[in-house]
Design a protein that fits this description.
Blueprint (H helix, E strand, L loop, with lengths): L7 E4 L3 H10 L12 E9 L2 E11 L2 E9 L8 H15 L4 E6 L2 H6 L3 E2 L26 E6 L1
Antiparallel strand pairs: 1-2, 2-3, 3-4, 5-7, 6-7
The structure holds coenzyme A (COA).
């Protein structure tokens, strides 16, 4: 990779590209444009989106969603940087914790999140996995939280 191809992470408004990257990464996505995105970050090489993460708002709570890195660029710290950007956004909104549905719980544990148990109170908006066709077939999600 040459200097002018270094990945750059910044805010993005290109939610169509975010959606496309998430689909390519295997996430189960709703039809149509993304809804509930409060702020989105993208990692770019030139104008190509290779990573994304968003802060969402639904059913009265904020949470982390649409975290994906292009398969060719994984394990280089890009996902961790993207989540750190969303943590900063959450902190700046006065949030003291950040929740997520984790398709890759090991990744979240590496970056300081904790896997929660079913009997813990957690935002209602995260209880959507059971309706997903991938649930416990190709996806074994956990609900995770990090204190900010
Ligand atoms: C999960 C994903 C976003 C991680 O992105 P990434 O850029 O490869 O992650 P990073 O390189 O920043 O990894 C940070 C740390 O987590 C670890 N890690 C990454 N993916 C992991 C996984 N699936 N399981 C366990 N640990 C993982 C890395 O080894 C690294 O650890 P280190 O600090 O000891 O080096 C990426 O693999 C992906 O897009 N997967 C498919 C979509 C997906 O599952 N998204 C999550 C939706 S909930």
């Amino acid at each position: 990779m040459s200097d002018n191809e270094l990945p750059m992470t910044r805010r993005t408004h290109d939610l169509d590209a975010v959606r496309t990257l998430c689909v390519q990464a295997g996430l189960d996505m709703q039809d149509g444009p993304l809804e509930g995105v409060v702020v989105a970050y993208g990692t770019y090489i030139g104008d190509r989106l290779i990573g994304c993460a968003t802060l969402q708002f639904a059913d009265g709570s904020h949470f982390l969603e649409y975290v994906a890195v292009d398969a060719s660029f994984r394990n280089r710290g890009i996902g961790a940087v993207l989540v750190a950007k969303i943590e900063e956004e959450a902190r700046s909104r006065g949030m003291s914790e950040l929740w997520a549905k984790a398709r890759s719980p090991g990744f979240y544990e590496r970056i300081g999140f904790r896997i929660t148990s079913d009997d813990e109170p957690r935002p209602k908006s995260l209880d959507t996995c059971r309706d997903c066709p991938q649930f416990r077939k190709s996806c074994f999600p956990e609900i995770v939280v990090k204190r900010l």
